[in-house]
Amino acid sequence: LVFLDPSLRTRASLESACARLGAHAIVLRPGGDTWALETREGVVMDGAAAEHAKEAVPVLASYADVLAVRTFAGLKDREEDRADRVLSTFRGLSPIPLLNLESARWHPLQGLADQATWIRRLGRPRGRRLVLTWAPHPRTLPQAVPNQVLLSAAGQGMDVVLAHPEGFDLEPDVVERCSALAASRGGGLTVTHDPERRFDGADVVYAKNWSGSPFYGRREEEAALRASLGAWQVRSVPERAGFMHCLPVRRNVVVADAVLDGPSSWVQEQAAFRLWTVMAVLEDQLGGASWPSA
Ligand code: CP
User: Fold this and answer.
1) Which one of 1, 3, 7 would you pick to mutate in the ligand 1 pocket, going by the greatest count of ligand atoms within 8 A of its CB?
2) Do the Cβ atoms of 269 and 293 come closer than 8 Å?
3) What pTM does this model have?
């Protein structure tokens, strides 16, 4: 488990899952408890990185049955993030299965836990309204989680509402792909920029902050705009709706205490599903390959 970025849930759920399944987790934090890694092609390595992924990934693969990497978007180069360059580099170098622990574009393990939560709470998610809403945050954050929520909800055929201020668009190709997928599964996808009406008819309110695609390379402009978007904080949700967030969450910035601490909050159950869903993934990846035959 190679963590190029921090984690609480992903790391702890994987370590717990490995222990429960009789697997052993090796957790590495390059630049923290092991060598800082270079992942770019053809660079002169006279900076902080002491080792290149070209050596490190095959070495790790020779010790393990599955590799996994967390690598967030750099939020500096839009095309590099769109290409999911670091994840792609690991994937290209690894001769064994590679799990995505959240990359520049996607967070599939979170997506599985989210879907498990919808199924448990809603029965059949198809046709139920999920509102994915942008919410304030003091920092500039990636789009991996909102992309994943859209993809997961579309795949479940939900009636997806994507709510965000003008300018905080997700990548158009992601929205178009998810819109087509939702329609093909009996759902749909609509976009609103109205913070007052965004939760109309919602069964699920899913809050997350993300940076706007149009702001790549123009961070100062985005920061100035953020200061005026306090109305997007989630202060209440409709009575019948559940509130979700992937966590970690900043209280009273993204969402009010009253929502997180109230009966509408599904966040603890959502996080708990990270364990059971990643156990299923590990069983799928390791169960046939590494367990002794009867
Ligand atoms: N939701 C999630 O991935 O949490 P962590 O960043 O703590 O792993």
Assistant:
1) 7
2) no
3) 0.96
